[in-house]
Amino acid sequence: MFKPTDLFDLHQTEHAALFEGCEYAWDALKRLQDYLATHLRPGLHNHCDGVAWIGEEVSIGEGTVVEDGAMIQGPAIIGRNCLIRHNAYIRSQVIVGDGCVVGNACELKHCVLFNHCEVPHFNYVGDSILGHRAHLGAGVKISNLKVLAGNVTVELEGRPFDTGLRKLGALVGDHAQVGCNAVLNPGSILGRNAIIYPCVNWRGILPANLLAKNQAAIEVVMQRPRET
Prior knowledge:
UDP N-Acetylglucosamine Acyltransferase, domain 1
């Protein structure tokens, strides 16, 4: 399930060429800097509500609204009809598809968002690829760097496989959803329509159409008046 087409509908991005010849989907991240250097045509066709800081190497499509306080460093390509909300921080080497939401206090760095992807509230997305209509709940963080030294690995045929990347966050397949305040650890891969419940600390591979729950017990007790 590591090929680009295993996880993503390449018709739902104008940048399918980024994935051409990639054996593994994460290989596209290795090409991202060069791809932007070749394909980026700076131009701002958006509307700003208030004052935003936008760098010179940024392309923004028609119908996109950039709200007050946003900072788009670039190089970055942002598609049409997106909403870049107040205080969003889009750093270098970012592609955002059409109809996406990048919300308040969200930070994006070296990542690709397919069309209609939503990163709406207090999210960090680094060194990752999020598929068509993928959704992150409020406070979801994608960790992209191991605590221990070395490249990020994924499990392939029961063994650790070196991705060749020191930094790799997550591959989140089309229509996958991640609940509020969950953490995706380095090298996490979610198949199409996979669901991560809120507050889950996820590591590894969740195949398509499966759901990961947090089984922590919840205690329910009778309310008693406090002693004075």
